[in-house]
């Protein structure tokens, strides 16, 4: 008991110090136990762990010691001389009892009654919600005058005071649906699930159904989720609470949940209202995978607050939440059920038509050349999202400025000289001195070795003042500026797991003409002209399995197809999907197809397919069997594969599960065989396009050489590379041990690859396929060739 009494005294001493501090700060006592309780908790976070009943009892004891009677009514300090010492005024106030206050009221009412009545009527007439009729009656009873009440109102903006401060919840301006491009596919969902419930909740109440409480926007980074949420708020014109999810997290226990409660309470008070939580996946992970207990509490608090958004609990005024994330699968499943985030809107990677609309929107106010081709630019930017296209516009503008600066520098016409002279004459002598000093600083700071910087430097010398209108009229962006800027932009889709469209074209692929035609009909033309295939009833895309000896160009073919179709391209190396943790390999497979569905048309290329879909039998581990089942389900399951084209490559088709090659999956196996003599000649011509070959070298004779028997395309590339290295060594690297290298005028020394370089290369390069392996592949072709004929 003594220990308990000692703890109570320590708590009372701490509370007494905080209440003394309260009076010194606000020149008045707490309105009651509740206000004192909130202030004390705000001053000391450790008191949050103390039971509420214990803390309230301590506050009551301290107030009773000070002489105040806790009756549940609001108390205010007397109207004393504020210039007295604070300590004397504080002790006098706490000794003052209720009868003293009444007596004081009677003495002051004669002087202040008329002014107070007028002030109170004005407040009621203006609709001030912070002072209602009941509070005015209480203030009249306790003798609080007009000046005292005004002082109380002026102190309400003190941050440590536990009072609600209204924020600015006006909707954003200057952005509407017309300012966005490529949202035609989701505009109907936005109107149905967001705009209609907020603008006409009475329809839902009359019918007797609940309005949607939340909508989840998801898609890759940069696709415009945040911009779309702001456009929605601007269109409907209702109060808009926008918050970034990381700002909810607080270091003190319980503060994060309190921020969520305060946000929802504020939304209810200003309803109808729209709440936008950006990057919501940061604070709402799956609770079974949460790293900290705080994350579980935040999820639970958000679930509880969303359940309280029904119309009967908000007074018939709707409150709707929009969440944005690029990782919807990481959210807790309870958030994605009906009654919370009822609907999900996916913002996909825009198609070619969508990119064209986005570009037209972005370039509305940009000065373009008269012959600007939007369709060509949209076709050249596969995988680009809205943020990438916006960055492309900015970068192309910089390219255009440098181009125009360069033209102005090279322009020696009389107009240019006249403009320069007029600019120089327009400045006074002091300006000339300043410009000369400025140019001298540029000369000392910038080196002429940097060409782009030198262009700007020379331009600043020539045009030190504001450019005249006739020079500004030359400023415009051409399609060539955009094409020059495209390589400088890394698409967001590449960081999201997509691969950029390869630079390999059909011209880089030697031979394989029959395979090219099959790939054209199976992949390229369905992407370019889907309407033609729909006319004959073909809607589901077919899958292609490229198989054959290693080094025959299977991967090269897939890259050429992706380049010609200009579709989004996802390259998957089979082993990289495998994970040692249970379920992670299957999740990786599902994620690949999920990304593909979000960016149709899309080509998925599985290299080394045999690594992830081996034949299922009793010897196969259960984990590998689950991966095979997952891939089979994605290829031909419940999910729609419209617009997703699958190309797989392997050199071991015999160990692939047979179910992979049934119709509807990889139903078109194509045998990429070793090249013939004529095909080897075509491959050699392709490989030596940029190689200085001597006129004495006969590529046809090399292709027909018996030493090239069983050579694949990769073997021929190694042969050409080895011959080129030998030519370099014989010409420039005479003695590698003493490092005697010809360094003087080596650009003028002729360099050619001679026949004897190829002869020496044949001594080190061997075919990667033996006669036995070649016979085995031809035997497999007789089996899978029949399959291909039947499926086609």
TrEMBL record:
CDD domains: RecA-like_NVL_r1-like, RecA-like_NVL_r2-like. This is AAA+ ATPase domain-containing protein. InterPro entries: AAA+_ATPase (IPR003593), AAA_ATPase_domain (IPR050168), AAA_lid_3 (IPR041569), ATPase_AAA_core (IPR003959), ATPase_AAA_CS (IPR003960), P-loop_NTPase (IPR027417). Residues 211-351, 540-676 form the AAA+ ATPase domain. It comes from Pneumocystis carinii (strain B80). One of its GO terms (biological process) is ribosomal large subunit export from nucleus. Residues 142-169 are annotated as: Disordered. Its main location: nucleus. SMART domains: AAA. Belongs to the AAA ATPase family. Keywords: ATP-binding, Nucleotide-binding, Nucleus, Phosphoprotein, Repeat. Pfam families: AAA, AAA_lid_3. One of its GO terms (molecular function) is RNA binding. GO terms for cellular component: nucleolus; preribosome, large subunit precursor. The keyword Nucleus applies. PROSITE patterns: AAA. It is found in: Nucleus. PANTHER family: AAA-FAMILY ATPASE, NUCLEAR VALOSIN-CONTAINING PROTEIN-LIKE.
């Amino acid at each position: 008991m003594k220990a308990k009494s000692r703890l109570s005294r320590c708590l009372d001493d701490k509370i007494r110090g905080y209440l003394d501090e309260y009076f010194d700060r606000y020149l008045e006592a707490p309105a009651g136990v509740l206000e004192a309780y909130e202030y004390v908790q705000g001053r000391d976070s450790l008191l949050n762990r103390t039971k509420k009943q214990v803390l309230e009892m301590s506050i009551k004891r301290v107030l009773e010691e000070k002489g105040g009677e806790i009756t549940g009514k609001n108390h205010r300090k007397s109207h004393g001389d504020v210039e007295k010492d604070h300590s004397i005024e504080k002790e006098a106030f706490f000794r003052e009892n209720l009868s003293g206050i009444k007596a004081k009221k009677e003495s002051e009412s004669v002087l202040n009654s008329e002014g107070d009545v007028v002030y109170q009527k004005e407040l009621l007439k203006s609709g001030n919600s912070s002072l209602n009729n009941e509070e005015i009656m209480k203030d009249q009873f306790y003798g609080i005058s007009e000046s005292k009440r005004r002082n109380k109102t002026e102190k309400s903006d003190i941050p440590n005071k536990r009072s609600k401060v209204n924020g600015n919840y006006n909707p954003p301006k200057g952005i509407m649906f017309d300012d966005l491009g490529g949202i035609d596919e989701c505009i109907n969902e936005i109107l149905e699930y967001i705009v209609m419930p907020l603008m006409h909740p009475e329809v839902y109440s009359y019918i007797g159904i609940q309005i949607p409480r939340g909508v989840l926007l998801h898609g890759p980074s940069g696709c415009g989720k945040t911009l779309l949420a702001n456009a929605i708020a601007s269109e409907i014109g209702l109060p808009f609470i926008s918050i970034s999810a990381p700002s909810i997290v607080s270091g003190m226990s319980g503060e994060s949940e309190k921020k969520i409660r305060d946000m929802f309470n504020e939304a209810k008070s200003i309803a109808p209202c729209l709440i936008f939580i950006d990057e919501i996946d940061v604070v709402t992970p799956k609770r079974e995978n949460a790293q900290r207990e705080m994350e579980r509490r935040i999820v639970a608090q958000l679930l509880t607050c969303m359940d309280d958004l029904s119309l009967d609990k908000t007074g018939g005024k709707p409150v709707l939440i929009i969440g944005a994330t690029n990782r919807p699968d990481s959210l807790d499943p309870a958030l994605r059920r009906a009654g919370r985030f009822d609907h999900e809107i996916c913002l996909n990677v825009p198609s070619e038509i969508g990119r064209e609309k986005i570009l037209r929107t972005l370039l509305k106010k940009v000065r373009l050349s008269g012959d600007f081709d939007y369709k060509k630019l949209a076709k050249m930017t596969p995988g680009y999202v809205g943020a990438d296209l916006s960055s492309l516009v900015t970068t192309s503008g910089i390219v255009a400025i440098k181009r125009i600066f360069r033209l102005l520098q090279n322009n020696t016409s009389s107009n240019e000289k006249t403009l320069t002279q007029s600019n120089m004459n327009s400045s006074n002598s002091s300006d000339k001195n300043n410009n000369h000093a400025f140019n001298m600083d540029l000369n000392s700071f910038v080196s002429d070795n940097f060409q782009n910087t030198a262009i700007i430097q020379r331009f600043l010398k020539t045009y030190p003042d504001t450019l005249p209108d006739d020079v500004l009229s030359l400023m415009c962006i051409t399609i060539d500026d955009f094409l020059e800027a495209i390589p400088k932009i890394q698409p967001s889709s590449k960081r999201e797991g997509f691969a950029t469209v390869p630079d390999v074209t059909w011209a880089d692929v030697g031979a394989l003409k029959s395979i090219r035609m099959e790939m054209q009909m199976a992949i390229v033309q369905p992407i370019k002209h889907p309407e033609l295939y729909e006319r004959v009833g073909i809607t589901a895309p077919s899958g292609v399995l490229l198989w054959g000896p290693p080094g025959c160009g299977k991967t090269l073919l897939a890259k050429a197809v992706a380049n010609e179709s200009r579709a989004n391209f996802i390259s998957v190396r089979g082993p990289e999907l495998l994970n040692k943790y249970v379920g992670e390999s299957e999740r990786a497979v599902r994620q690949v197809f999920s990304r593909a569905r979000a960016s149709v048309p899309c080509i998925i290329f599985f290299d080394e397919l045999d690594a992830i879909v081996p034949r299922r039998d009793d010897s196969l581990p259960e984990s590998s069997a689950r991966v095979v089942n997952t891939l089979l389900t994605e290829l031909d399951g419940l999910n729609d594969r419209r617009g997703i084209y699958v190309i797989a490559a392997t050199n071991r088709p015999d160990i692939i599960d047979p179910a992979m090659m049934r119709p509807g999956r990889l139903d078109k196996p194509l045998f990429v065989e070793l090249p013939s003599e004529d095909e080897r000649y075509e491959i050699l011509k392709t490989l030596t396009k940029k190689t200085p070959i001597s006129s004495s070298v006969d590529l046809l004779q090399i292709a027909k050489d018996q030493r090239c028997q069983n050579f694949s395309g990769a073997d021929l590339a190694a042969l050409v590379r080895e011959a080129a290295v030998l030519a370099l060594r014989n010409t420039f690297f005479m003695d590698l041990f003493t490092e005697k290298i010809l360094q003087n005028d080596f650009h003028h020394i002729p360099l050619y690859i001679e026949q004897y370089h190829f002869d020496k290369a044949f001594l080190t390069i061997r075919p990667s396929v033996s006669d036995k392996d070649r016979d085995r592949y031809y035997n497999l072709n007789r089996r899978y060739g029949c399959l291909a004929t039947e499926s086609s």
